[in-house]
Amino acid sequence: MKTTLKKTMAALSAAAVVAASAAVMAVPTSAAGVSLTMGSKTLTLAELKAANYQVTLPIGVTDSINSVGFGVTLGEGLTYVDLEASVKKATCLAATNDAGNFVFAPFAYATVPLKAVSGQIAAITVEVSKDAKAGDTFTLSIDGKDSDGVETSYKNGETGDSGVPGGGAGTITIVEDPTEPTTEATTAAPTATPVAATTTAAKVATPTKPAKSTSSPMTGDALPVAGVAVAVAVIGGVALVAKKRK
Fold this sequence. Notes:
By secondary structure, this protein is α+β, with helices and mostly antiparallel strands. The protein is 20% helix and 31% strand. It has 4 helices and 13 strands. The protein has helices at 2-19, 22-25, 45-50, 225-245, and strands at 36-38, 41-44, 54-65, 67-74, 78-85, 91-92, 95-96, 102-108, 117-128, 137-143, 154-155, 162-163, 168-175. Strands 2, 4, 6, 7, 8, 10, 11, 12 and 13 form a 9-stranded mixed β-sheet that branches. It is elongated. The model is unreliable at 1-32, 197-205 and 211-246 (pLDDT under 50).
């Protein structure tokens, strides 16, 4: 199987070179320093389950190219599902090893006139182990090598740059599902029942019965009882004196 894989990768690499056009072949090697990049993603366990445990990550280059061969090594807990070119009219054919944890793909983009591309060039989909749990991290690494460790190269037909691409790595991180905010029953402090104010009303003086009037029915002038007695005595004395004088 290893020999078959190697032949398949060699054929794919040859196809990529042809697609990049003969003009690129004559370009001398340059130290431009293009590197391959692998995206990363963080998702909750619920999101992972909803995606049927499949995650897609972008593959890119740090500078413009027309062709490049790259190998992706999948860390423990990951298996290969698919790989496609992200650039319209580009060719990116993938081959995997028996274990399904290594993918080799030559990428080629040729136009007339020849134009180079940069940024994301492909996307890889992998399946995460169903034993995954919150806190787990899975790693993918990418570089310019085939399954035997033989270096590949990138080419830019516009600028004439070519060389061995640098590598990179990406991760898939599983985090806890967000917890619903717990709504605690708020027991309001019992509202004090207002105590009815015991109003000690000022005792209203019970009106006393009016004293019997001693006034003369004719004049209506009231005289105190004691005053009446004195008046009678005085009148009696005056009358006595008047009688003696006679």
